[in-house]
Specification:
Oligomer: heterodimer
Strand content of chain A: under 5%
Shape of chain A: globular
Distance between the termini of chain B: 22 Å
Number of helices of chain A: 27
Number of helices of chain B: 3
Helix content of chain A: over 70%
Shape of chain B: elongated
Number of strands of chain A: 0
Largest sheet of chain A: none
């Protein structure tokens, strides 16, 4: 790291300890001992930026005057803002942090996440965007309801959407908690709870429904931050080849490969060790794991509810297509920059330092921002850190709030209200139910966020993609492209996909295996003394950088020991996992490879065995509308069906007052992000 | 029923275009992953200016994704819109 020796203390002596004691006495005492006045300055900048960001995001609520502002837009009708709005919807700060971390920790295997999400975006655009736009539907549930029984479609769609939202919520809480811990030094668990409290306040202030322009700002901000960091990093290299050569020569990266490969690394030369980081196989060892991940990423995008709605952002089909072109360019550029920044973080920050900060690698990017602009003992470094963290944090809080609202809304309005329509017919009852649902979802998300410590955000999002891939993707594909699809078949396929995915996850390495955890804990305790000797050596070293590292090591060792003892107590009576296993049955970390074909087979099989007159009749209409986008008669419809279609079209036109706006609920429908 | 030959032909071509464009990028993406997992040495062998072959392939996927999308959006859709408009005009039975 480029640490400078200049030292500027920002803040009075009396206020720093006071503020620090408010959070965590031990962490703050360490901070004071290290003389980190910069940290306090960064904290102030961070707090101010978060405040400003949340106020702006809350004010954006006023931009939403009608549903059309939420789904479409009155302003962002031209191609470039439309492109940024689309990209802003798809990209998120959490996945930005997660992808950069995955690349920094796992080399090429991490890059697959970035590439996969780009290809997923293409899948959505080429296979789904136009049919959805032409059919006039906003979500997968709407799409399914246009073919099969609407009530069943909405119930199934809501159930899957809630689970998907919970996956995303966990990822967002994890990222938010990590960032808050980085800035304030408080414990991770407290950080997650603080994020939860902030989200609740934000929701109460009404800052949930985001206007299109907010997505435009979000997309642009993410791209600008990535570009500024990448520009700072690129000044150190003479082209791509020089960058790759220095990547291969980096000692931190070679050490990382040695730690991952173990004995196998003994057969490689130092040059080969560096090169190995740039080849696949460090995280996903078998080709089937790569295939499973690829399937989940590529097909999962098609099943994500939030991406479709923004295709209505622009005024007409021509502008929509131009926007799509822009959005693909923006998304591609963003992921390319994320890959470059991840690799740069592995070199400049060091893999070891990143792992010390967070085992999931989610803090690679903030650490890189600090290192690039002066290091931890400079104003520039801390300012860059504060700006990057605050921007990401605001986006995460806003997205988390909307996710809580979305999940609660789906739970209350779709599941309960459809399940017991008589009981929840009164809007006040429904509102009260929704508030309770929000609280339950919020608490549940907090618990999940705390339990997800140490995981990478990108991996969690990939699991959400896997669930979408094995439920919505087969259902949507068969609804749109198979004449014989029936309601029972579609529902059975979704259920089979979800159950298969759950089963695979329950026997995969993602679960906790107490006997393995205890073995690890005993190993950590046994090796603690040896580590302490190394740390004592570091603390006695005159070099300040070495001393600082040793102090961080000591803190990490204390945390590991605390965790190890806690694990030994927690699992003292347990040897088996939730489903009675002592070790994983399969190596797959992503269930898509098994669950997706099964979902298709079950959906096709049950469809062939069942009869659904409505689904059969809707087929022709759906074909016409999904490609031509207008309810015209082409001489291809049954006369009865055509008359029905005309009548419904007129009724819809009359309901909307002829202005084409859709009268759906606005609140809580902002999307989650990839 | 959907038996108008012009309409059916239009739909068939539409599906073919979308699947071909998307399948190309998908195959390249999955192919690069599996190739690298099976043959790390070949994957890393330098090709152009010291850049490993696998990395070049990965970069090409990104380029292909962007190009395919732009080509599809700009060309295929434009043709489709024109033909669909002609078809609709000839049938002249629009609801509005």
């Amino acid at each position: 790291m480029n640490a400078t020796n200049r030292k500027v203390v920002i803040g009075r002596d009396w206020i720093t300890p006071l503020l620090m004691l408010t959070f965590s006495p031990s962490a703050m005492a360490q901070s004071l001992a290290a003389g980190e006045g910069y940290r306090f300055g960064a904290l102030v900048v961070f707090a101010l930026l978060v405040l400003v960001g949340l106020v702006v995001a809350t004010a954006a609520r006023r931009w939403v005057r009608a549903p059309v502002d939420f789904y479409a837009s009155r302003g962002a009708a031209s191609a470039l803002p439309g492109g940024f709005a689309l990209a802003g919807d798809y990209l998120s700060a959490a996945s930005f942090l997660g992808v950069a971390g995955m690349v920094a920790l796992w080399g090429f295997d991490g890059i697959l996440y970035a590439l996969g999400w780009l290809v997923a975006y293409l899948s959505v655009i080429l296979l789904l965007a136009e049919p959805c736009r032409n059919l006039g539907v906003f979500t997968p549930s709407d799409l399914l309801a246009s073919r099969i029984d609407p009530r069943a479609a909405r119930l199934a769609g809501a159930a899957v959407s809630i689970v998907l939202a919970l996956f995303y919520l966990t990822a967002q809480m994890l990222a938010g908690g990590m960032l808050l811990r980085l800035m304030t030094g408080i414990d991770y668990e407290v950080s997650v709870l603080a994020v939860g409290a902030l989200v609740l306040i934000y929701v109460l202030l009404g800052g949930v429904a985001a206007a299109v322009w907010l997505q435009v700002i979000k997309g642009a901000l993410l791209l600008v931050i990535a570009a500024v960091l990448a520009f700072g990093a690129s000044l150190h290299y003479d082209g791509v080849a020089d960058f790759l050569l220095r990547l291969g020569d980096d000692p931190s990266i070679r050490l990382r490969v040695v730690s991952l490969l173990g004995e196998e690394a003994g057969q490689l030369t130092p040059g080969e060790l560096g090169a190995r980081f740039m080849a696949p196989g460090l995280l996903h060892i078998h080709w089937s794991e790569l295939l499973s991940l690829s399937i989940a990423l590529v097909f999962g995008g098609i099943g994500l509810p939030h991406i479709l709605m923004r295709f209505f952002t622009v005024a007409d089909a021509v502008a929509a297509r131009r926007s799509l072109g822009w959005s693909v360019l923006i998304v591609a550029l963003f992921y390319l920059l994320a890959v470059f920044l991840g690799l740069e973080a592995a070199m400049r920050v060091g893999v070891d330092t990143m792992l010390r900060q967070d085992p999931g690698g989610n803090l690679a990017l903030p650490a890189l921002a600090q290192a690039l602009y002066g290091g931890s003992r400079s104003i520039g470094g801390n300012l860059a850190l504060a700006v990057v963290v605050a921007t990401a944090f605001v986006m995460i809080v806003a997205v988390t709030a909307s996710l809580v609202r979305t999940a609660a809304s789906a739970l209350a309005r779709d599941l309960f209200a459809l399940w017991r329509p008589a009981r929840f017919s009164d809007p006040r009852q429904l509102g009260s139910l929704e508030r309770w649902a929000m609280l339950v979802v919020g608490l549940f998300a907090g618990g999940l966020g705390i339990s997800a410590q140490g995981l990478n955000v990108a991996e969690l999002v990939a699991l959400a993609f896997a669930l979408a891939a094995v439920t919505f993707f087969p259902a949507i594909t068969l609804c749109l492209h198979w004449r014989l699809a029936t309601t029972r078949g579609i529902l059975a396929g979704m259920l089979a996909g979800a159950l298969a995915a759950l089963t695979v996850i329950l026997v995969s390495p993602l679960m906790t295996y107490p006997s393995q955890v205890k073995a690890e804990a005993r190993k950590t305790i046994a090796e603690a003394e040896r580590h302490r000797a190394f740390i004592a050596e570091g603390l006695g070293n005159p070099d300040r950088e070495t001393q600082e590292r040793a102090r961080q090591d000591a803190a990490r060792l204390d945390r590991s020991l605390r965790q190890a003892r806690f694990d030994l107590v927690r699992f003292r009576h347990e040897e088996h996992s939730l489903v009675g296993l002592t070790e994983p049955l399969i190596a797959l970390r992503n269930p898509a490879l098994i669950a997706l074909p099964l979902a298709f087979l079950v959906a096709i099989g049950v469809s062939l065995l069942s009869v659904d007159r409505r689904a059969r009749e809707r087929w022709t209409e759906l074909q016409v509308r999904q490609y031509l986008g207008t309810p015209v008669s082409l001489g291809v419809l049954d006369p009865d069906l055509e008359a029905d279609l005309r009548a419904r079209e007129r009724a819809r036109h009359a309901e909307n007052g002829g202005d084409g706006e859709d009268d759906r609920e606005v609140d809580g429908l902002d999307g989650e992000n990839a | 029923m959907a038996n108008d030959p012009r309409f059916l032909a239009l739909l068939r071509r539409r599906r073919r275009q979308a699947l071909a464009a998307w399948g190309l990028v998908l195959a390249a993406f999955i192919g690069v992953g599996i190739w690298g997992a099976n043959d790390p040495d070949g994957f890393l062998r330098p090709l152009a200016a010291g850049i490993p072959r696998g990395w070049l392939a990965a970069a090409m996927i990104v380029g292909a994704a962007v190009l395919v999308e732009i080509a599809y959006v700009r060309l295929a859709n434009r043709d489709f819109d024109r033909e669909a408009a002609v078809l609709l005009a000839s049938l002249d039975r629009s609801i509005s």
